[in-house]
TrEMBL record:
This is Uncharacterized protein. Residues 54-84 form a coiled coil. It comes from Jeotgalibacillus malaysiensis. The keyword Coiled coil applies. Keywords: Coiled coil, Plasmid.
Length: 100
């Protein structure tokens, strides 16, 4: 699909909003307590070296930061003056198979 400059601008704005939402999620993680991680905390007790609350928060922040990085990469692709984009429905799943 060829994208007009207006459509590219709208997509960039949407990606910027997505980044802002993810950054707010990171702020919310900082405010979480042990009660918020209760299930994870209980499952964590079966590990040889249990994770602390701070380590669990760091894992969550790392996951969201990875998502932000992917959004930024997509935004850079959009900014690279390549106006061809392939939109694939989210219900389509790709599977890799290996043969021995």
């Amino acid at each position: 699909m060829n994208l007009s400059e207006e459509n590219r601008r709208r997509l960039r704005e949407g990606l910027d909003w997505s980044i802002a939402i993810k950054e707010n999620e990171i702020v919310a993680i900082g405010e979480k307590t042990e009660e918020d991680y209760k299930f994870t905390f209980n499952m964590n007790q079966f590990r040889k070296v249990p994770l602390t609350l701070e380590q669990m928060k760091e894992q969550d922040v790392r996951k969201i930061q990875d998502e932000i990085d992917e959004i930024r990469k997509l935004r850079e692709t959009l900014n690279s003056n390549q106006n061809h984009i392939l939109i694939v429905s989210s219900d389509i799943k790709l599977a890799l198979t290996t043969t021995n």
